[in-house]
Structure formats: C-alpha cells, structure tokens
Amino acid sequence: MDDHQPALSAAADASRRRHAGDGVIARPLRLALLLLAALGASALLALSVGSHPLSPAQMWAALTGEAGLPRDILWQVRWPRASGALACGALLSLAGVLLQVLLRNPLADPYVLGISGGAALGVLLAMLSGLAAWLVPVTGFTGAFTAAVLVFALGYRAGDWNLYRLLLTGVVLAAGCGAAVSLILVLAPNTALKGMLFWLMGDLSGVTVSWPAWLVAIALGLAMTMLGGSLNVLALGRDQAASLGVPVSTAQTVLYAAAALATVSAVMLGGTIGFVGLIVPHLIRLLGVVDLRWLVPLAMLAGATFLCLADTLARTLFAPLQLPVGVLTALLGVPVMLVLLGRRP
After folding, report:
1. Which fold has domain 5-343?
2. Count of C-beta atoms within a 10 Å radius of residue 50
3. By C-alpha distance, which of 162, 158, 37 is closest to 102?
C-alpha cells in the first residue's frame, strides 16, 4: 500500500485542508507531548489513591523495591489494574478509529460488529456452567473469534467487501447475542449474577496480567500509524482510493482484522466498556487532527488516559464500594457525545 506515497501524501494534505474548519488547528507534536504527560499523571494518580492512599515517600519506597505494605499495594493490587486500564483504553480507541475509517461512519465503535456480544455469550455460558476460572477467558475468546469470522465471512464475498452487509451482519449478530445474554441472566443463580453483570458493564478489578494486550496495542498502533498515508486516502472514499492506486479490498481486510483483534483484546481484558472508542477519536478530530498518521497514536494515548482516570474514579468515588468502569465511561460519554452532536449542523 506504500507504492503511491506522493499521491497518498497529496490526498492527506487535501483531507487536512478540507477538515481545517472542523476545530482548532492542532500542533500534533505538542498535543502528543501533552497527552503523554496526561497519561503519566493518570497512571500516578491510579497508583497513589484508594482506600489506603500512598504518599510520595511511600510511592518512592515502593518503586525502589523497599518491602512492606506500600510495595504490596502498588505492585500486586494497583499496578495490574492501572496497566490493564491503559492498555484497554488504547485498544478501544484504536478499534474505534479503524472502524470509523472502514465503515466511513463516525458513529462506528468497537462493538458495532458484534464481537463483544460473542465474547459476552462465551464468558457468561462458562460462568453459568460453572467451568474453571481459567476456562472463562478461553470461552470468551472463542465466542469473540467466532463472531469475527462470521461477520467477515458474510461481509467479504467474491474477493470484495460489502460494507453494508458487514454492518448489518454485526448489528444482527449483536442483537442475537444480546438476547442470549439476557436469557442467561434470567437463568443464572444469584451467586453468579453479580459477577456476570460486572463483566457486562465493564470491570477491570480482576486484571492480573496485561502484557499480551500491551503487545497487541503496540504492534497494531505502530502498524496502523505506518499505514496512515494509505488510510487517509481510503477515508476519502473507495473510488478515489482506487483511482490513486490503493488496493482497496486488501486495505479494508487489514483494517477489519486489526479492528477485530484490538476489540477482542480489549474485551477479554475489561469486558464490554462503552463509549471510549466512540468519543475519543471525535475529541482528537475536534482538536484539528485528521491525518491518521497522527490520529491513531494520539487517540490511543487519549483513550488510555481517559479509561485510566475513569477506572480510578470508579473504584474511589464510593469507596469501599467499587463501580463497574463501564458505568463511569457511559455517564461521562453520554453528555460529551451530546455536546459533540450539538456542534454539528
């Protein structure tokens, strides 16, 4: 896809000029530095606050390896959860950006293809059946992978994509999985019901290992940033991209695969956490960043920061009671989305 870089760069410049009036013209490098600082601050906040606050001295002692309660709290309780929130937020934002380009629909989000519904069905079936804890992620991944393959099989026919069929298949599959999930909740015993509801609303309290999600996020983020020139042209429309030499079908397949992998990784880490992949790309675009070579990494930084702050708020707002983080992202995301929609003619 990189054999036509002069044409791609020209198209990207045209795209930037066309969208220049949509928001404040951003300086992407400065914005990246600002978001990096915000990400670091959100991580430090997540590590320091809680039912047992850690002072700067205690944080330093824990970070330098001094044994004691602060070290145990930091590394065994708060860091796994904060790391999971950062990775999950980055993955959801990346999936949102890619699906909005693929479907050419600003309202597309990581859950529009029914992948989260497949994962939810797999996880809840495992919980209802009383399977061993280590099998729950396996069944969830199986459900998500099955949904992704089914949507792909119905959306890609005869060597070409039908984006309308892709979107319709995802919506129908999500509705079917939602009905099955509702049935499981009705049949589930009271002892398992709370855990099921927390997973469905998004919950990061059970995260212990997040490095696989980090590997996926970094690899996909770098790959999509490097392919940003081609994605800029693809965002202009199928016909224009084809006329500029972009292999449209191949590009769309890569986009779908990357978005599906990012969504599966995020869902398996934190459950179904809404609004992150929908509103974060919009916020970055409102700052004037429409070039996908910048939009992809900036959206990932902003998504990671947003979800980390939301998770910190979810576990401290009514401490010791902890809220599902998906509730906080919805409460924050709905008014933000209404404001964004109100800005559009």
Report:
1. ABC transporter involved in vitamin B12 uptake, BtuC (1.10.3470)
2. 17
3. 162
